[in-house]
Design brief:
This protein is of the alpha+beta class. The chain has three domains: about 260 residues, FAD/NAD(P)-binding domain, CATH 3.50.50.60; about 40 residues, no CATH class; about 180 residues, Alpha-Beta Complex (Flavocytochrome C3, Chain A, domain 1), CATH 3.90.700.10. The protein is about 30% helix and about 20% strand. Strands 1, 2, 8, 9, 10, 11, 21, 22 and 23 form a nine-stranded mixed sheet that branches. Strands 12, 14, 15, 16, 17, 18 and 19 form a seven-stranded mixed sheet that branches. The chain is globular, with a radius of gyration of 24 Å. About 55% of the residues are buried. The C terminus is likely disordered.
Length: about 575
């Protein structure tokens, strides 16, 4: 299906959170918008994510009685994002983020609520908060999308139950207490019965949470404004009028078709996580090739921007946002990637070890900091092995990777090589290629303090953020317990990325910049196509989606307020 028109006010490339926000805002302001998505689905990596949106001093905090200020946020960011680069963009983000949330709630289907108890990742720093800066999407009924529900990218199956049931943060503790608490058992029964009814009319559950709910809400906003979406389409090039971006070139049968954009084009294709040449250029060798992002994130936006003179913002402490990940085979033969964000690493009774069998990091740090520990330990060595080590009680209570809690039989995971099992620690070490005496000594040292809830080596459980990720019911330390009871298990983990931080330079209006700092007229960027305002630092949950929504909103408003008017477009140079 091709676009219905030859000319639009705005063309947005990429249907992730940033792109859909820009499209929804422009459409709500009365502009004719075309969205072009290279896959068959909307949602991008957002649809797989936790959906957290970090916006300091947001209006939802005030409604919930939580205090915050831009001044405190500036203090916090000054220590967690200390570089001078992009200071102006961070100021714009802090100034307009709350505005974006209020506008989206008033004019679109986006609904967010504060997570009252979710600390910033460095809670000991000046200006940090214990919760509220991070917002989460309100649950959404997928049936409201009608036939469009089939176009919403499904969540990762490993993050659902019973083949398609999503659960929110508050459901998880209840599911762990099934059979132990009447209240929790009844709540779980209601969830499962509701899901069973949904499956009678849908291939998966229609009660949506997390990033899937955010993507669905943005998609519903596009449908309500009759935004035209062109699926499974590649943009061949940008079209130019002089030095202005005037539209896009898409393939139509055997010929190129030019679609004009009177006001401008927004690049929001998700960064370059799956482009091997760009990874090799910007990533450290020890980072490897594993990514937890949507496979369509192949740097399309960066290459298109380059043809119009866009400059890359390479002033980043890290080129990407990191997460440890485990790999496994899916039933269909594809390789699954499980990001170890919050479900297992910080829980009591698991440790991470390197190739020498020694611990190398505080396992309860943020996933980004955890991988920085992997990269430091790896010393540039590609494919250096790391493992999570636990015993049977831990695996039963908390699960490990995609293996869910209360899994009776782990044989298939062992047979696939995803999980290594052994009767004792020495045997486990031998199976994963670690010197038995080294791993035995590491466990003995860890267990000595863990029996009393202590971690003398790394201080695990020493901050409110770490304890938040642990098991609050475990005393005295929510993050520390000994590893004692056979059988013992190991799972290999890899450094992986959750998205790229290097992207196109942009100004406070979301306009793409040239190397000399002048804007490319008619060209905007948001999401991971825009260079990260955090410079590859990770101060809190949702620091990619927060700026994505904010600068998507800013770009949409700027386009509605003027943008660039163009007439007859011509095709730009060859993409790089």
């Amino acid at each position: 299906m091709m676009p219905a028109h030859e000319t639009y006010d705005v063309v947005v490339i990429g249907a992730g959170a940033g792109g859909m926000t820009a499209a929804a805002v422009a459409a709500a302001e009365g502009l004719r918008v075309l969205m072009i998505e290279k896959t068959a689905f909307v949602g991008g990596t957002t649809a797989w994510s936790g959906g957290m949106v970090w916006i300091p001093a947001n209006p939802k905090m005030k409604e919930a009685g939580l205090s915050d200020s831009v001044t405190d946020a500036v203090r916090y960011l000054s220590s967690t994002v200390p570089e001078a680069a992009n200071a102006g963009l961070r100021a714009a983000f802090l100034a307009r983020g709350p505005e974006a949330i209020s506008w989206l709630e008033a004019n679109t289907e986006v609904r967010l609520q504060p997570v009252k108890a979710y600390p910033d990742y460095y809670p000991e720093r000046l200006g940090a908060t214990s919760g509220g800066r991070v917002l989460e999407p309100v649950a959404f009924d997928g049936t409201r999308l009608g036939k469009g529900f089939a176009r919403l990218r499904a969540p990762l199956p490993e993050f659902t139950l019973f083949g398609g049931m999503m659960v929110n943060r508050l459901d998880i503790p209840h599911l762990r207490r099934v059979g132990k608490s009447l209240r929790s058992t009844l709540r779980a029964a209601r969830l499962v019965s509701s899901y069973a009814l949904q499956r009678l009319r849908s291939p998966r559950g229609t009660t949506l949470h997390l990033g899937n709910a955010l993507a669905a809400r943005l998609y519903a906003s596009l449908l309500a404004r009759q935004v035209e979406i062109l699926f499974s389409a590649d943009v061949e090039n940008l079209s130019m009028q002089g030095d202005r971006v005037a539209g896009v070139v898409i393939r139509h049968g055997a010929r190129d078709r030019v679609i004009a954009a009177r006001r401008g084009v927004v690049l929001a294709t998700g960064g370059f996580s799956h482009d091997m040449s760009l990874r090799k250029r910007f990533f450290p060798p020890a980072a490897g090739h594993v990514s937890a992002t949507n496979a369509a994130c192949t740097g399309d936006g960066l290459r298109l921007g380059a043809t119009a003179g866009a400059a890359l913002n390479t002033e980043a402490t890290c080129p990407a946002y990191w997460v440890p990940a485990s790999l496994f085979p899916r039933a269909d033969g594809s390789r699954g990637v499980f990001p170890h964000t919050v479900t297992d690493r910080a829980k009591p009774g698991v440790i991470a070890v390197n190739a020498a069998g020694r611990r190398f990091v505080n396992e309860a740090l943020s996933y980004h900091e955890f991988v920085l520990g992997m990269l430091r330990d790896g010393q540039g060595e590609p494919d250096r092995p790391f493992y999570l080590i636990c015993d049977r009680p831990f695996l039963w209570a908390y699960g490990l990777g995609r293996i869910k809690p209360f899994t009776w039989n782990v044989r298939r995971h062992v047979m696939s090589g995803e999980l290594v099992e052994a009767a004792d620690i020495a045997q486990l070490a031998a199976k994963i290629g670690i010197k038995p005496s080294a791993l035995t000594a590491t466990l003995a040292s860890y267990n000595e303090g863990a029996k009393e809830g202590r971690d003398p080596e790394f201080g695990r459980g020493s901050t409110i953020y770490q304890r938040h990720l642990g098991d609050i019911s475990h005393k005295p330390n929510p993050c520390v317990a000994p590893i004692l009871r056979a059988p013992f298990f190991a799972m290999r983990i890899y450094p992986a990325d959750l998205g790229t931080a290097i992207g196109m330079k942009a100004d406070a209006q979301g306009r793409v910049l040239r190397a000399d700092g002048t804007p490319v007229a008619g060209l905007y960027a948001c999401g991971n196509d825009m260079g990260s305002i955090m410079n590859g630092n990770y101060p809190g949950p949702g620091i990619t989606l927060g700026p994505a929504l904010t600068f998507g909103y800013i770009a949409g408003r700027h386009l509605a307020e003027g943008g660039v008017t163009a007439t007859t477009p011509v095709v730009a140079g060859t993409p790089v």
